[in-house]
Amino acid sequence: METEGGNTVLPDPPTQREKDIKEEDEKAYGNIFTELESVDLPLGTTLRSVYDDQPYAHKRFMEKLDARIRNHDREIEKMCNFHHQGFVDAITELLKVRADAEKLMGQVTDTNRRLQEAGKEVTARTEEVVCCRLQQRNMATTVERLQLCLPVLEMYSKLKEQLQTKRYYAALKTMEQLENVYIPRVGQYRFCQIMAENLPRLRDQIKEISMSDLKDFLESIRKHSDKVGEAAMKQAQQHRTFNSAVARQASAGPYSRPLFTLNGRGREALNGQALDDMVEEEEEVLTAQDLVDFSPVYRCLHIYTILGDRETFENYYRKQRKKQARLVLQPQASMHETVEGYRRYFNQIVGFFVVEDHILHATQGLVTRAFTEELWNMALSKIIAVLRTHSSYCDDPDLVLELKNLIVIFADTLQGYGFPVNRLFDLLFEIRDQYNETLLKKWSLVFREIFELDNYSPIPVETEEEYKLVVSRFPFHDAEIEKQDFPKKLPMSQSVPQIYTQVKEFIYASLKFSESLHRSSTEIDDMLRKSTNLLLTRTLSGCLQNLIKKPHIGLTELVQIIINTTHLEQACRYLEDFITNITTVSPEAVHTTRLYGLSTFKDARHAAEGEIYTKLNQKIDEFIQLADYEWCMAESDGRASGYLMDLINFLRSTFQVFTHLPSNNNDHASMSGKVAQTACMSACKHLSTSLLQMLMDSELKQISMGAVQQFNLDVIQCELFASSEPVPGFQGDTLQLAFIDLRQLLDLFMVWDWSTYLADYGQPTSKYLRVNPTTALALLEKMKDTSKKNNIFSQFRKNDRDKQKLIETVVKQLRSLINGMSLHS
Q1: pLDDT score of 559 more than 60
Q2: Which of 363, 339, 343 is nearest to 413 (CA)?
Q3: Per-residue pLDDT reduced to its tens digit, 776-815
Q4: First vs last Cα of the chain: how many Å apart?
Q5: Which regions are flagged for Basic and acidic residues bias (predicted)?
Q6: What is the DSSP code string of 346-409?
């Protein structure tokens, strides 16, 4: 450094610490410049380290940078000085080569010109060859593309042809091949794109057409279900008939024949020719496949399966069939009027389920067993409700029987297709009860007609043929009558064999319904006995009761009715044997239900007996109404009244009728004697009561002794009638006891034995034990009033005066006796 005097002052030598700091700065800036000179490393970090250091770092960096540049300039200068002579030598050589290069350039240019002129023709030929080869390549490419396109066009043409001929399933297969195989090969062409765009529309068109065909099929099958059902039921009926015929032939043997049949005629055993004819008829029956074309269903199912929309098709088909099932199950309002209405109804239902069964087995999954069972359960409930309602309107047993046969065939047909039909057979038992009711109504009319047409007189038999004819219709056996010569009379009237025959016809009719119900012979036998019991205990008994109560039925008819019921009662055991024979059930296995004919005919007989007693009493009342007593007469006529003699003559002739009551054995003899005795006793008691009531009539105010004497003559005739034994069998004076009350009362007044009556009253040995004090008092007062009225001057005659006093005394005593009785009671 310079001082003020101009002399240079040397700096102080650096210390060790300053040396170390300088070395560190040099090293740091060396690293920075190395990083800056490197082209791979980023400069941002390096520059940040320069400026972010201590103060004056930028200045120091610029100083170091200038020093670094000066150093590199010195190195470049050294390198240029080293290579300068070589560079000069190279330039000199290059200038020498320049002249040779220009000469060579001229030669090359001349050679090129001559070559160009010589290759013009070759170039032209070459261009022609190139053009031809390009054309050939284009032609080959075109042929190749056409060969790829031709199958597509052929398949599309085939597709159009299949659509025109309605081969939709094959058309869908063709579409599938076009889409998956042919069109992808040439998909870049526009016509293929148009084809590909058109295929979905064609698929939709096929779906619509196939669905339209299915709708037509569903409509057609709805109209033709009755024909399909008719064919199926006919086939089932023939099959059942054939099997039953074979079973009968196998069980009957070559020589046996059934004892009884439904129509009363023996059945001929079916021979081999008849069975062959049945087989031929069965083979001629058309099946559902013969009557219905199922191809629309198959075709539509395949189409929707290929299109991947099978579920939609299945749902649509099942929904439509459910709707059709509901329509089929709706009956016509007048179905119950004719059997044809029921037949059409069953045919439609059978046709519906036969079609569904065929679809179930011919297709896989279109309908399932669960779906058909659901349809059948729904249909079965509806069918049972419909049949229960419509059958209740039917009052014709023949129509009910035909309905039952239709239900059996209907059930057998559907059972053959695997549908459960137990509820239908349960319904048949309900209809059987209704059938029995209609039979009972029908036979009630039959019985009434028989009773109305009967003459209620014994059957006259002129010849042995007539006798055999009657015996063949009714089981009558009487050894005494058989020994008699012709002509003779059978005790019962014509209605008895007719009733017996009609009961058998009823059993036949009831058996017709019990057939084919898949029940055992024992059950059928029990059903027949129960229905026959209803016929006897309700229908026949009711008809008999109504007959007995009819006003035009007289005593003679009633007696004949008693005889008829007796023989019908005896025939009940033959009816039981008859039921056993037609059901082929051994007697040891039966007897679960017995016939109640015994009680039925006994009740009818008792009613007839009671009606006999009633009519006798009514007749007695009619005669008594003719009585015309002169109650104030002074003396009697000396003979009985005319009305009473007529009444007694009537009773005599009436009781002679009872000799016709059956007495062919001891039981019947005792029964007939009892009826006659009871009727005779009832008539005598009623006559006695009526006569006594006549005396005690409140409207009768006065009775003279002469009237009492006349009344006594009439009672004497009644006692004579009773003692004449109008009906045999009475012991002693039993019948006369019916008039004992009247007799003692009249004796008391005729003898005028009041002292004895009053003295012995209440004693078992009293002569007037049956005379009631009240009755005696009433009659005595009527006689007292008469005595006062007719004997005006009786007070002037001592006897009459004494008698009047006696009457008054007796009246007082009787009244005191009556009062005492009331106090004791």
Answers
A1: yes
A2: 343
A3: 888 888 887 555 555 444 444 556 666 677 778 888 888 8
A4: 187
A5: 15-24
A6: HHHHHHHHHHHHHHHHHSSSSS-HHHHHHHHHHHHHHHHHHHHHHHTT---HHHHHHHHHHHHH
- For 89, the token pair is 């030598």
Q: What share of the chain has pLDDT > 90, as a percent?
A: 2
Answer for the pair 564, 493: CB distance below 8 angstroms, yes or no: yes
* CA–CA distances in Å: residue 630 to residues 161, 213, 622, 638, 794: 127, 108, 19, 14, 22
The candidate with the shortest Cα–Cα distance to 782, out of 685, 711, 689, 687, is 711
Query: Cα dist. 709→101, 136, 470, 713, 803 in Å?
Result: 206, 167, 58, 6, 18
Is residue 28's pLDDT more than 70? yes
pTM of the model: 0.64
The structure tokens 């569903």 sit at 218
Mean pLDDT, the chain, whole residue set: 78
d(CA 813, CA 825): 18
Q: Are 178 and 199 in contact (CB under 8 A)?
A: yes
Which residue has 């034995």 as its token pair?
Answer: 753
Backbone angles phi, psi at 255, to 5 degrees: -120, -10
Please provide the size of the chain in residues: 825
Residue 425: Cβ-neighbour burial (10 angstroms; 0-12, 13-18, 19+): middle
CA angle 322, 327, 332 (to 5 degrees): 155
